[in-house]
Write a structure and sequence with these properties.
Oligomer: heterodimer
Largest interface: A-B, 39 and 37 residues
Strand content of chain B: under 5%
Order of helices and strands of chain B: HHHEEHHHHHHHHHHHHHH
Structural class of chain A: alpha/beta
Structural class of chain B: mainly alpha
Helix content of chain B: over 70%
Largest sheet of chain B: 2 strands, antiparallel
Largest sheet of chain A: 13 strands, mixed
Number of strands of chain B: 2
Shape of chain B: globular
Chain lengths: 429, 323
């Protein structure tokens, strides 16, 4: 190549490069230069959470109703916690589980939510605020029950309050009672107790969740069901209790009881649908997914009760006092206003404010999902797929029957690091 | 005959003077110019920022303390002591038993060596075929691309794809039962060490094929003819000429495969039904519980173990001289 030509090309290249670099440098500058103007034009909220909760339908409806654009940041449950602790400025709103709060709140990276700014604050179900059903019946509170970590002493406090205050750690969005999923067509007999999970009859056909803190609680349900031991708190075991529980799990593993441990939603659906497992810990929508393939699968209510979980919204400390915070409150208020609640209830989850959700559901839908009555008409999922034919009723029955039978809540134990080491030992055994 | 032997022996020992000259290895004493430093600088910078610094941070964090939600800067041996908790006690107990870490390393090493042996045999055979029996470059490239097919899918897809093949009601079990070879489905086909080894071989044989193929291509065909002319049987040609001259490829391939399998936790997890221990999985479990310091300590221990293995392999062959 002639020298001159080479030079001219490289100079042009350099100019182009410089132009692009300058544009890239200027662009964010322009935005941060006029924050008021831009936030008035574009209402964007960065929403950190797990993919399961980040529905496109909800984002569309929020946009339609409030003009807020949700920028979803979908990560795994572990990564939600990690991001809140290590990168609090990378999101505006976080959707996380109550059991993570014992890790998140002491970090001081989340803002308490001001109940005075939440329209339906007083209508939030007492499951969260008092640990009771709406009719006053007390429900199981072992583990990280929401009422234990629901309130803070003040806006910037990192101490949980014993009784309700104005400051909420999380504004609840969704919760459910989890149990074992079974294949009734392959088991061919009634299953009524947690101990069936480790029944040698299902050797090589059982599975549990590969999340240590949850797996060990399922094992504790089995231990109690076998009548071996009663835990003062399954969600906060002593070292001796952890040893005892892991021994039961280890013996079952060595005897070949488990086909696999699953971590991914789709894995659990696949294990069950393919018949690799016939009894396993499962999530409600996974049971629905197996059933929608035409394969019988029951979300089996058990005598010892359910292991429950709950999730909710909090704000990043990075948006304290900004217009983003106002936007976040607008979004959270929208969420409790009913449309989202009805959407969640139709998936088999439960919503935080029951009466607004009820107003957004057809009476026959409410009767099926919340009252446990046989379906008057075909029950359809939010996307229109057929879930249940008319006449069927929901596994476990009504809201009161299911939430009332909660035995414990997902939790992080005080002996968590010992438990994690024991879990590694269990895997190596 | 004598010449062939000498060249082969030299190659085995690290190349004679003529080989070294041909490869362009310069003698000592020639001062490197500033240009050479500048040329090396960009990569050195990338290497420093994305490898050396994170590595130093990992080593540093492995000596930190931690609580449920925070890393506490400190100099403590807690993480290392907990990693080897009970190792001495259990080993010398009346009923000797391995501790978690040693047991996990044993499983991981067993898996790594099994995969290494199989990929070596398979990889060498495939590379040999590609280098000596496939004559046209186009066909060689086409066959090479076929070897990369296992990498076209994600791990989740792979996991889902193995169930219909190896599962209880999978294709292979149905076939075996239809042929009357077995009565009940074979459970060990999936979620077992067998499945892990199978998936690893399926994935990683390519890493063996490429360097061995590269070594085989460099062998002067005249050597093979000379060996045959001198009366060597095909087997003798293979063991006395081809294998010694392809050792650099074999060693590089071995380093690839061993280091990948030693650190793997995704394939082991997916194919082993999360029930088989691996060092990577142990680290992953700690990360999941936000326990970075013990995860870092395990990472440092793993790194040292792998470095010892690589050091051992490079003792066998001096790769730098061979290349």
């Amino acid at each position: 190549m002639p020298r001159r030509m080479q030079r001219s090309i490289s100079r042009r290249g350099a100019l182009q490069g410089a132009g692009a670099a300058a544009a890239a440098l200027l662009a964010p500058e322009a935005i941060t230069g006029f924050p008021a103007v831009h936030s008035a034009e574009e209402k964007v909220l960065r929403y950190l959470g797990t993919a399961v909760n980040q529905s496109a339908d909800i984002a569309r409806k929020v946009k339609e109703d409030t003009g807020i654009t949700l920028a979803y940041i979908p990560v795994t449950t572990d990564d939600v916690t990690r991001r809140v602790i290590t990168q609090p400025n990378s999101f505006d709103v976080v959707d996380t589980e109550y059991f993570s709060l014992k890790k998140l709140v002491p970090s001081g990276n989340m803002l308490a939510m001001d109940g005075k700014r939440i329209k339906n604050f007083d209508k939030i179900t007492p499951v969260f605020t008092k640990g009771t059903l709406p009719d006053g019946k007390r429900i199981g509170d072992q583990g990280t029950a929401p009422k234990k970590v629901m309130f803070l002493e003040g806006e910037s406090s990192t101490k949980f309050a014993d009784s309700p205050t104005r400051w909420a750690t999380l504004i609840p969005t969704v919760y459910n009672a989890d149990t074992l999923g079974i294949r009734p067509d392959l088991i061919k007999r009634p299953i009524n107790n947690w101990k069936e999970l480790l029944n040698p009859e299902f050797k090589g056909k059982a599975a549990i969740l590969n999340i240590p803190s949850i797996g060990i609680m399922d094992a504790a349900m089995v231990v109690e069901s076998l009548g071996d031991y009663r835990y003062p708190d399954k969600g906060n075991m002593t070292r001796a209790e952890i040893d005892r529980t892991m021994k039961v799990l280890t013996e079952a593993k060595q005897a070949g009881q488990f086909r696999a441990f699953w971590k991914d939603f789709n894995e659990s659906v696949n294990l069950m649908a393919s018949g690799e497992t016939v009894i396993q810990s499962m999530w409600s929508p996974a049971v629905t997914a197996v059933r929608s393939k035409g394969i019988p699968c029951t979300y089996q209510p058990l005598a010892e009760g359910y292991r429950a979980w709950a999730a909710g919204f909090a704000l990043s400390k990075g948006i304290k006092g900004t217009s983003k915070a106002d936007l976040a409150y607008e979004f959270v208020n929208w969420f409790l206003d009913g449309w989202a609640g009805a959407y969640l209830n139709r998936q088999g989850y439960y919503s935080a404010v029951l009466e607004t959700a009820k107003a957004n559901m057809e009476p026959y839908e409410w009767a099926f999902w919340m009252e446990g009555k046989p379906a008057e008409k075909d029950i359809k999922a939010p996307d229109g797929t057929l879930l249940e034919k008319a006449g069927a009723s929901r596994d476990g029955g009504s809201y009161a029957a299911r939430m009332g039978a909660v035995a414990c809540w997902n939790a992080v134990m005080e002996e968590n690091d010992y438990m994690v080491r024991k879990w590694n030992e269990f895997i190596a055994a | 005959m004598e010449r062939v032997h000498r060249r082969v022996r030299w190659a085995w020992l690290g190349g004679g003077p003529s080989v070294r000259r041909a490869a362009g290895v310069r003698g000592r004493g020639r001062p490197a110019g500033i240009a050479a430093f500048l040329q090396a600088l960009p990569f050195a910078a990338v290497f420093a920022v994305f490898f050396v610094v994170p590595l130093l941070l990992t080593v540093m964090v492995s000596f930190w303390d931690y609580s449920a939600y925070a890393l506490i800067p400190d100099v403590t041996l807690r993480n290392y002591l907990e990693a080897f908790e009970g190792c001495a006690g259990r080993l010398f107990a009346p009923a000797p038993e391995l501790c978690t870490t040693l047991k996990t390393y044993l499983t991981t090493l067993r898996l790594a060596l099994t995969v290494w042996l199989i990929t070596l045999l398979l990889g060498f055979a495939v590379a040999y075929f590609l280098a000596f029996h496939v004559r046209t470059l186009t066909l060689q490239i086409a066959l090479f691309l076929i070897c990369t097919i296992p990498f076209w899918t994600s791990n989740v897809i792979r996991m889902i794809a193995w169930i219909p093949l190896l599962g209880r009601n999978g294709l292979i079990n149905q076939m075996l039962m239809a042929l009357g070879i077995v009565r009940a489905p074979l459970e060990w086909l999936l979620f077992s060490e067998f499945a892990v080894v199978l998936a690893c071989v399926h994935l990683y044989t390519l890493f063996m094929i490429v360097p061995i193929f590269n070594s085989l291509l460099r062998i002067d065909r005249a050597l093979l003819e000379a060996a045959a002319d001198s009366g060597a049987s095909p087997w003798q040609v293979l063991t006395n000429v081809v294998i010694p001259l392809s050792t650099p490829g074999i060693v590089i391939g071995s380093i690839f495969v061993l280091t990948i399998v030693m650190g793997d936790f995704v394939t082991v997890g997916v194919m082993g039904g999360q029930q088989i221990a691996s060092v990577g999985k142990m680290i992953n479990t700690h990360m999941g519980a936000l326990q970075f310091p013990p995860a870092a300590a395990h990472a440092v221990i793993l790194l040292l173990t792998v470095l010892v293995i690589i050091w051992g392999l490079t003792r066998l062959v001096d790769i730098r001289k061979e290349l």
